[in-house]
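Example for tutorial group B:
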């Protein structure tokens, strides 16, 4: 399932088209937890993409902020921040994940060193009690962090998609390299509240048996069928129940949001 090639440079550059977002984009989502017939709003997430020169050769910062609602705070509070620093060639140079779950806090850092045929990743995890992980990982193929998968899917050329097209990734998490793949299915209409969207539907396989009941179609994503290629819905199976994420609002898009087809 991995993209393994003898072509020099395939390991370091994920080149599937051109990035469909520009600096200044800010997208907001509502996150729901579904168990049986019960579906409650569990949190909110925001994605931002801005210029940044914090790290050598990095020019852009892609960031996800997630927090649970006040109701969920009472028994499972989460305040997570994921930040990825990219250069002009869309190569992820460094990422950091700050996890705050009330009684648990950690910082995960990933530094990417790209070679002609493989990528080395220095993975470090800190907790208040000290360093828990300090290891080197090596991958061949399209390797990124968790947030980077969303970034690179925004590079897909939607106009050439055909049923069954597969986009594999390797995701570095702590000591592990997790395989996953997006598989394009078809066009679909997504309706949430009073809004409808024309989307492109992908199944997602995630080879992580500890987190998901089934590694096949572990998640699904519906991406807006216009030049922004903006995710508008995500559904993920958990050991218990589902998480569903719905587009809420956006500012700073590169193109008009033409995938929004109806307001009732």
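The residue assignment follows.
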């Amino acid at each position: 399932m991995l993209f393994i090639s003898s072509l020099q440079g395939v390991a370091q550059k994920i080149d599937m088209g051109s990035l469909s977002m520009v600096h200044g984009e800010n997208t907001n989502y509502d996150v729901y937890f579904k168990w049986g017939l019960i579906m409650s709003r569990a949190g909110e997430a925001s994605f931002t993409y801005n210029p940044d020169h914090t790290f050598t050769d990095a020019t852009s910062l892609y960031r996800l902020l997630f927090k649970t609602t006040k109701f969920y705070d009472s028994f499972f509070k989460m305040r997570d921040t994921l930040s990825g620093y990219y250069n002009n060639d869309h190569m992820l140079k460094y990422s950091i994940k700050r996890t705050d779950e009330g009684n648990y806090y950690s910082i995960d850092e990933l530094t990417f060193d790209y070679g002609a045929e493989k990528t080395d990743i220095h993975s470090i995890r800190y907790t208040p009690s000290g360093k828990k992980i300090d290891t080197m990982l090596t991958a061949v193929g399209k390797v990124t962090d968790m947030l980077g998968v969303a970034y690179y899917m925004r590079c897909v050329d939607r106009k050439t998609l055909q049923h069954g097209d597969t986009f594999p990734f390797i995701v570095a998490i702590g000591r592990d390299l997790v395989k996953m793949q997006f598989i394009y299915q078809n066009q679909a209409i997504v309706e949430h509240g009073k809004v409808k969207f024309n989307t492109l539907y992908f199944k997602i396989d995630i080879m992580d048996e500890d987190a998901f009941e089934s590694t096949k179609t572990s998640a699904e994503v519906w991406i807006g069928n216009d030049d922004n290629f903006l995710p508008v819905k995500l559904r993920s199976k958990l050991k218990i129940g589902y998480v569903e994420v719905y587009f809420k609002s956006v500012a700073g898009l590169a193109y008009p949001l033409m995938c929004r087809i109806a307001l009732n």
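Residues 42 and 98 are 19 Å apart (CA to CA). Compare this with the pattern of hydrophobic and polar residues in the output above.
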